Sequence to fold (631 residues):
Amino acid sequence: MSGAVAAPALRVQRATLASRVGLVVGVVAVAVLAAGPLWARDSALRTLVGFFTLLALAAMWNLLAGYAGLVSIGQQAYVGLGAYGLLYFADTLGLNLFVSVLVAGLVGALVAVPTAALAFRLRGGYFAIGTWVIAEVYRLVVSNVSQLGGGSGLTLRAASAYDRTARLFATYELALAVGVGAVVLGYLLLRRRLGLALTAIRDQEAAAQRLGVDVFRTKFLVYVVAAFGCSLAGAVVYLNLLRVQPEAAFSVNWTAFMIFIVVIGGVGTIEGPIIGTIVFFVLQETLSGHGAWYLVLLGAVAVLVTLLARRGLWGLVAGRTGWSLFPVQRRLQELHPTEGR
Amino acid sequence: MTWLNDVVQGLLLGGLYALFATGLSLMFGVMRLVNLAHGDLSIVAAFLALAIVDTVPVNPLWTVPLVVPLMFGVGYLLQRGLLNYTLRGGDPLPPVLVTFGLSIILQNLLLEVFSADSQGLDAGRIEDASIRVSDRLAVGWFPLLTLLVGIAVLAGLQLLIGRTRLGRAFRATADDPEAASLVGLDHRHVYAMATGIALATVAIAGIFLGIRTTFAPSVGPTRLIFAFEAVVIGGLGSLWGTLLGGLVLGVAQTLGAQLSPGWGVLAGHLVFLAVLAFRPTGLLGKAVPA
Fold:
């Protein structure tokens, strides 16, 4: 391949300066956070557990809606299944508490298979309501099973076998792993072949189909992965809260928060859920005293961002600067004649 | 014989569900828009009626001639001022996100203005009056009126779509908005008329709901879900299917609640899932699923 003809030598470039800087900053940030038990107070650790689990949920919803075009309003189904899965395996079957979290995630993924088979018969807005109805079905079924505490719920008894502080530290590290894992998983999925398929579906589903992308299989896979992630996050949430009630665990508010976070941060971008979760937490800490007005504001912001800035806050930043912290695209770069011989 | 009574009560309840589902079905049919704030808008109508009744002591049924045109106007402006912008470019995300955001906004505005308390509209004697068919079967006047109004609204809409200029514009725009605009139809106006009419039917549904039972700012999503189930059970794109879907849902819920009080709503959901699994085009639907 010596350049005898005028054809320029090309190299596929996947990293950018911003992404290299981002990687370093990211690794440092995760390391500092992982050392959280050394520097943070218990109350701060509990808040951060909430932050990481919300980040994981948002990252999963972003994979669904931002990439696979699956606008689910039923992800609370998996938060609830994760919570009750944890309770069932840890308390009723006596499995190790932390292994139960993982198993609860797998239960969510398993339930997602028949759920997808039904919900995928609907599209767009009807898919959204359909997933919501299915989440309601799971809530009502759980509420009617007396072994699971019925409508009034249960308390995680297995947790009392552990020392309070040790349990908090373990929960914290688990939450960090789930939050960071969800973002990294999304990033790795998108860098692979599946990512190309998903990006094609995101941009133009019909065209992707014609180019040979197996749209159904791709969406199905993403749905099951998102169910796994949401169930895992749900299990960690309730490992922290300990008290599970069907109304709260299967509340549509879980999905509403995922939607607000992703839309405000930037739907269809890996960075979006991170930015969105930070913004969401800051807003919540400063405005939640205003009750319902806070949610009116969040709703209004989501509507405005959807109409005026489709890729959210991160889209605005990336549009101005060209930054990409998690580059999933492939750029062709012309090699300088002295390079790459 | 109690099961016969349950079926009859279920059919009457289904009339209310059909009334809720009509607007959802119409908007989807004309512009493929699924309005997730549909249920909340019906609750807005119920609260409007409540505000009128609180100011001027009249029977809530008399608020219908006032609230219905008001909600028509709200619908027209909502579509022209907001929802039309979500339909540009054929991206499926904006309509869902914007109407879901709207749903959250409306619920919380109602909560701020009217508090979380359950409210009711008192229509007087008609609420309790019933026709006794036999010892075990009585048909309430008000549920019967609801069913008849539901059928009348659907029949009126069917006539409007089949026989009028506006209906022709609906059909033309639904088939191909670009071709329709070539012959001089402004799809933004046509869509706004459809949403206006949809919200007019939603207003009737909301007021009848308020008379039949109690309501609170948070119950909108449940109304949306029942309306959606009626539409899917009946079959997308079929208005008479929507009536049938409402009736099936009403009967399923009433019979389910008879088995065990906690199972009423769940029984309705299960019938919906069964239809989705075994007959995804719905009972009377056209061949193409949504």
In short: Residues 2-31 of chain B form the longest helix (30 residues).
